[in-house]
Amino acid sequence: MSRLRSALEQDSSNRAIILASVALFTALLTAVTSLVLTSRLSNEDALLADMDVIITSSADQAVANTESFLAPAVSTADFLSALLRDGLLDPSQPEAETLLLDVIAANEVFDGAFVGTVDGEFIYASRLSDDIEAVYATKLITTRDGTRIVENGVYDRDVQELSRERDDADAFDPRTRVWFDAAVDSSDGAWTDPYIFFTSGRPGVTRSSPVRIEGELEYVVGVDIRLEELSNFMAERAPSDNGSAFIMTKSQQMVAYPVLGAIDGGTELLLADDVDDPAIKLAGATVAQLFDDAPPVDTSATFNESPRLNGEDTQFVYNVLETNSDWVVGTWAPNSDFLAEVRRTQQTNTWIAFVTGAVILIALLLAVLWVLRLLVRSETKLVESQALTEQSSTERNRVEIELAHTVAELEASNRGLEEYAFAAAHDLRTPLRAIGGYSELIGREAAEEAPDIEQIRRWADRIVLGYDRMGHTMDNLLEHARMANVQIDLREIEDVDTQPIVAAVVSDLAQDLLEVDGTISVGDLPHARIDPAQLSRVFQNLIENAIRFRHADRPLLITIAGHRDDERARFCVIDNGIGIAGPERSRIFESFNHSRESSGVGLGLSLVKRIVQDYGGDIRAESDVGRGSRFEFTLPYSGQAAMIHDSS
Fold first, then answer.
1. Buried b (16+ CB within 10 A) or exposed e, 245-259
2. Residue 304 pLDDT greater than 70, yes or no
3. pLDDT confidence bin for 369, thresholds 50/70/90
4. CB contact at 8 A, 257 and 234
5. What is the per-residue pLDDT for 596?
6. Three-state DSSP class for 35?
7. What is the pLDDT of residues 590-630, one digit of tens each?
8. 408 phi/psi in degrees, rounded to 5
9. Comparing C-alpha atoms, which of 503, 490, 480 is closest to residue 608?
10. For 175, which DSSP code?
11. What is the per-residue pLDDT across 43-75, written as a single tens digit (0 to 9) for each?
């Protein structure tokens, strides 16, 4: 009886242990399931909450890229205008025709370039096709001895003339075109709404600029871009697989639309309501509401909307271009594009959790007695195994996080390199063209029997100016590239006396200051921890910036001061120049910022910021338009704890 009672008690104890184990596992399985479902819902809610930020960021990038895409046409029109105002371009000479052909050959986006006069004379170069022998065409309208003469030329891929014919029956008058009216109504240039090009019969837009000499309109210059090119460009700006980016006018006329068949398939101009796309029709209705006579929202800012389209939630963002306030850049995407991947992952994880739990439950029911017998002996090994598992999981998570961070940095770097290369090529091309143009003019003048030496000297000065600008651009580009691979250890940097360094920079720029009647005042400056050569570059760029943006109505005055404050060395460079407008102030430290002057390469202040930050400091700018600017930056010195900075 005693043995039987003991056996029954042992069996009852085992049953209790088994039931307790099963109950414990069931509770754990329920907790895991709840955690998976809660995590799924919370992740999805968080992503939905961030949709506005995601689509707005994508829209801002699309707007910035669009501005960059249009910038070459604006700068080319300005360049042609400057040549005409300076008397360096004569539309009646063959060299003008060659220059316009070179302009469109150098930029594949341009469909044409032209110069028209208020008297009806006209010189135009256009692109035909890259698939046939005749690639470029020209139209020249002149008046000789009171007779109107029209000549049409055809050129091959190498811009060599294939044929030239007169067409006296051609009654084309440039003064009747929409780009002529757009230029006349503007002060320094404007974009037309889409219209049909008279050469190709395809829709496009034109950047046209008036050229006024002594207050009187003499010429209109312009650059053409097909809507096909704009549409191709916007097709690459889509924020997701099923979303798109587009451009339309405030009157809902389509300027760029990713589905090229909607614009490139014919010769008609399209309104948003004509496009067979519900998203574009919806965007057209929204734009019409935004820019009605009494707009319901502040249309000067980014406008976000979250309508339902085809039965699902979407995100739309609308922005007005700074360089053309009549054009609206739209970006949209369905929420499902952003949620689909996370939902698939969550569903997979949920099934894995349930299947794994069921398998473990069955295994537990079959092996619980064996586990109980070995529990005491294996407890130590189990604890060690759990510790190793947690360590391995932690290490794996760390590697995955680092890998994701690296991938994100590479993607951002690739986008930056594309914009960097585009802007660098643009900023180097403009002075190079100027050098080539002035060199050709000098050559022609030198061949005359009585060359104008003063005129040659002025052209030579412009060549030197272009050369200096290219050299300054290359120096800054090389410095940016060099600093991208530099590792700075502040523990190895000694304090330097900044006073003689600044004095040397001022001495180097003395001639530049003398030429602009500028005065510079340098106060007592503190020591700082920085490489002397890099500090020289900081002050050189800030002083050159003050000289470049000086005020035309008063002598330039630059003040440099400094002091120590809370274990920081503080420096400031103050000028009485033209100042910086509010919207520009937030972008002046960005690479290739052209908002203040079209002549600036846009790297100087970006390089200054990078140097200061690489040495553990910070920089900020304060300014009032018309009253000057103040640049203040800090650097560490030996009183601070050592810092290590890796700028790679």
1. bbbbbbebbbbbbbb
2. yes
3. low
4. yes
5. 45
6. helix
7. 765 544 443 444 567 888 998 999 888 999 999 888 889 99
8. -65, -40
9. 480
10. G
11. 555 566 566 777 788 888 888 889 889 999 999
d(CA 100, CA 104): 7
Distance CA 494, CA 484 (A): 22
Best CA proximity match to 610, nearest among 418, 513, 476: 476
CA distance linking residue 98 with residue 440, whole number of Å: 12
The 3-class secondary structure across 485-533, one letter per residue, is CCEEEHHHCCEEEHHHHHHHHHHHCHHHHHHCCCEEEECCCCEEECCHH
Q: Where residue 30 falls among pLDDT bands split at 50, 70, 90? A: low
Which of 7-16, 51-60, 340-349, 372-381 has maximum average pLDDT?
Answer: 51-60
pLDDT, tens digit (0-9, with 9 covering 90-100), for 128-157: 865 577 888 999 998 888 888 899 999 998
Rounded Cα distance, 152 and 521, in Å:
62
At 575, which helix (H) or strand (E)?
Answer: strand 569-575
Integer Cα distance of 56 and 77 in angstroms: 32
Q: Provide the 8-state DSSP code for 389.
A: H
DSSP string, 344-375: HHHHHHHHHHHHHHHHHHHHHHHHHHHHHHHH
Which residue type is seen at 204?
A: G
Residue from 632, 408, 417 nearest 538 by CA = 632
* pTM, to two decimals: 0.48
The residue behind tokens 């035309």 is: 552
* The pLDDT value given to residue 645: 39
Average pLDDT value for residue range 495-509 = 93
Separation of alpha carbons 111 and 127, rounded Å? 5
pLDDT at 345: 54
- Identify residue 467 by its one-letter amino acid code: Y
Closest by CA position to 206, among listed 116, 309, 308, 105: 116
Query: Beta-carbon neighbour count of residue 399 at 10 Å?
Result: 10
Q: Is the pLDDT of residue 637 over 90?
A: no
From residue 364, give the alpha-carbon distance in Å to each of 12, 312, 359.
Answer: 18, 45, 9
Q: Given a cut of 60, is residue 417 above it in pLDDT?
A: no
> What are the structural domains of the chain?
484-646 (3.30.565.10)
- Token couple for 16: 């209790």
Give the C-alpha separation, 95 to 86, whole Å.
Answer: 16
- Three-state DSSP at 52 gives helix
The answer to whether residues 138 and 84 touch, using CB atoms and an 8 Å cutoff, is: no
Instruction: Select the more confidently predicted residue: 377 or 461.
Output: 461
Residue 387 host element (H or E)? helix 335-446
User: What residues form DSSP beta bridges with 570?
Assistant: 563, 634
Contact indicator for 503, 537 with CB cutoff of 8 Å: no
Residue 561 has pLDDT above 60, yes or no: yes
CA torsion 340→345→348→351, rounded to 10°?
A: -100
Give 210's strand partners: 220
Lowest mean pLDDT among 242-246, 331-335, 407-411, 412-416: 412-416
Residue 139: C-alpha distances to residues 112, 127, 187, 204 (Å): 11, 12, 27, 18
**CA–CA separation, 24 and 376 (whole Å):** 19
Q: What is the spatial distance between Cα 237 and Cα 63, in angstroms, rounded to a whole number?
A: 9
